[in-house]
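Record format v2
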Amino acid sequence: MAVLRPFGARDSTVPFFKGELMSKSSLIKKADMLFATWFHNHYHECCICGDPEFELMHLIPRTEHLTRWEKLNALPGCAYHHKYSKLLSCHGSPEAFEDWIADNYPEHHYYFITNRHIIGVSLTEDWYRQKIKELQLW
Ligand SMILES: [Zn+2]
């Protein structure tokens, strides 16, 4: 179990990225870039309609960093199924969307229902660095 430290107080055993900014925002940007690379290598179309133009849909909102870069928290969706459809979309009809995920992506749904209440967790700089290291191995 990692010792919790305030952001910026580092554990010297955690890898340091030479020449990179140490800000939290730069760590988030790097994790986003690595996760997006994995995501676009893994998925090739909207999971609902097959549109080859798609965005990354987070089941638990991306504002929650603890789950932001988890494979089971992300699915590909075209803009219509990500945001706009009032019948079936992540943002436009979340209840129908959740039912659809439960039927079609049960592992993702299980991840969603068991983690969606874990919100507002404050993470250390070391946590972000470990996450980046994990993402680099995908
Ligand atoms: Zn779609």
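The first helix runs from residue 24 to 42.
The beta strands are 55-58, 74-77.
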